Amino acid sequence: MEISSYLRHLLRHREPGAPLAREFYTDEAIFALDMDLVFYKEWLFAGHTCELPGTGSYFTLQIGDYPVVVVRGADGVVRAFINSCRHRGARVCPDARGQAPRLVCPYHQWTYGLDGRLFAARKMGEGFDRSNYGLRAVHCNTVAGYVFVCLAEVPPDFAPARRQLEPFLAPHRLDEAKVAFTSTIVEEGNWKLVWENNRECYHCAQNHPELARTYADAPALTGVTGLSEDPAIVRQWEHAESLGLPSRFKLSDDGQMRTVRVPLIGSAVSYTLSGEPAVRRPLTDTYPLASGLGALLFFHYPTSWNHVLADHAISFRVLPIGPRRTQLTTQWLVNRDAVEGVDYDLEELTHVWLSTNDQDSRIVAENQIGVSAPSYDPGPYSAAHEGGVSQFLDWYVGRLRTAMVLHHVA
């Protein structure tokens, strides 16, 4: 891949903490770099293990040009494959999710085992060797109910992610939960604008009235500094640690992951208009609704931010569609024995974040229109409120620079 000397100059000379130039949100070449050097090389959040409850359960997703299917095998192992038949390339699993004893391409009925091996191919003649035509494997790892995939030929080491995420997530037993609701929307903005908007709450009080009832707009909650200086957050850490829960702020050495447990506003225990639990059954009986868990927040660039509460968890998955379009999938997880209409009301469970997503979608669209103007000249970030934005962009530019060297981008 070749990029212009001007774009190379922008990458090389961007100062740490500085905003990005217009081209990073509009240029086709930069978008191609983002896909080739970030989304096709990094570990990406794909979905949840609880979406694969039994043998042959699968779900699909589209990562740039790559269709992917994630499936649970007869041995219980979760695997991922390129969702493209080795015959003529049609998607083997065109549906968003399903369950089948084998994966059968609807075009010519080539049939694959749940481990990806070609099981049957009709009328291919003598000398045809099925062993040469299994589905292309995609690197796949699971940790505490989360499924990550990587399209790279040689993936980054997943061990650091496992070491950081597992202690925080495992006590919530999300691998035993169920998905109560899924929302997928398309935001009319570059994926980095979606992330930048998420990494600050400078805008929250005026734009998110529902969320602002339970989630404070304190800069430390979205940033990467100042948490240990906030007495309310420290008290939350001490309380959660007394329950045996890791809680203190941790930013991975490379800046890709942040995990921390924070309090909600006042006596709130969940993201509802009242602050009361949205689900009467806690995610796990080990931590009742009145345990005072607050919210476990974690992000993993470039695809996911998450909130885990006593009564439910919410995951967000970011996948770029184009330079100015991004798909955001949100899932609400509850106790697998919770019954809709008895233990929770779906509208109450989803109202705050459906509203917040809709508000953010409008913000991102307006942001994209503005940064697309040829005259766009960004001002400085607020040191008090936008440290999280700066940290995200430092990670992104660092990843791009490193990948360009590793992969010999001209």
Mind sketching the topology for me?
Layout: H1 5-13, H2 23-26, H3 28-39, E1 44-48, E2 57-63, E3 66-72, E4 78-82, E5 97-99, E6 103-104, E7 111-112, E8 118-120, E9 137-143, E10 146-150, H4 159-169, E11 177-187, H5 191-198, H6 204-207, H7 219-222, H8 231-242, E12 250-251, E13 257-262, E14 295-300, E15 304-308, E16 313-322, E17 325-335, H9 346-371, H10 387-406
Antiparallel strand pairs: 1-10, 2-3, 2-5, 3-4, 4-9, 6-7, 7-8, 9-10, 11-17, 12-13, 13-14, 14-15, 15-16, 16-17
Helix pairs in contact: 3-10, 5-9, 5-10
Descriptive overview:
With 410 residues, the chain is an alpha+beta fold. α3 crosses α10 (387-406) and α5 packs across α9 (346-371). A 7-stranded antiparallel β-sheet has the order 1-10-9-4-3-2-5. The chain has a 7-stranded antiparallel β-sheet with strand order 11-17-16-15-14-13-12, with helices on both faces. It has a 3-stranded antiparallel β-sheet with strand order 6-7-8, with no helix packed on it. The chain folds into 2 domains: 44-155, Rieske Iron-sulfur Protein, CATH 2.102.10.10; 160-371, Naphthalene 1,2-dioxygenase Alpha Subunit, Chain A, domain 1. A hairpin with a 6-residue loop joins β6 and β7 (111-112). It is globular. The chain has 10 helices and 17 strands.
